[in-house]
Amino acid sequence: MTQALSTAPFIDIGANLAHDSFDADRGAVLERAWAAGLAAILVTGSDAASNDRAAELARALPGRLFATAGLHPHHAAAWDETLAAQIATLSTREEVVAVGECGLDYFRDLSPRDAQRRAFVAQLGLAVQANKPVFLHQRDAHEDFHAILRDYRKALAGCVVHCFTDTAAALDDYLALDCHVGITGWVCDERRGLDLRELVKRIPADRLLIETDAPYLLPRTMQPLPPSRRNEPAFLPWVLRAIAAARGEDAEILAVQTTANARRLFGLPVSA
Hints:
This protein is of the alpha/beta class. The chain contains 9 helices and 8 strands. α2 (48-60) links the parallel β2 and β3 (65-69).
């Protein structure tokens, strides 16, 4: 399951490796990722604890692991000056390459919507201050999300709409704002991924990024499926293959392109 896809390296721009499901075997997970052909992984920060852990992991493996620091909209009610200061401090560090995961989620509404909007705006401001791109989350909140992002876009160093699963109209709005678009194993789902497989054809080659969102969104095209059903970065080749098939492109060429995109957006070294 971890055989390298090609001679071209590729980058997972979103993996929740600070998640406790990796505590028992994180080292082995990373070894499988490198064996599968990954050159680098961005470890997602989504609250105070995971921000610190993601940065710690990235510092321990420079050039291979990088981190983000932010507050997921699910946790927006926890936004305060202490968390803002943590993200501001972490975002000055070399290994922290983006602010986020941040945005809006009206699908689950785990935090009040006004709290989500306040935390989102605050984090966009921190990204501008740090001159770092933003790692964005949006679900069932496109109108508010787009309006807020549009106000900040010219001042932002860059942005990626992570785990895109929305409509053609939403995609057009993000591309008009010169956003990158992150595609996960959702594209591999034989039921939920049908629309996404059509939409990935419309993403310009220089705007496309690939990610696992591990431990979530296990690619359903994997055969056999791992017994644990836990996703991990080593399974990114299945996402890449599904996107390449949908776009009618060569997977190795797509790996080269998405890797170049990730390096450019996040300022990663060529060795990554």
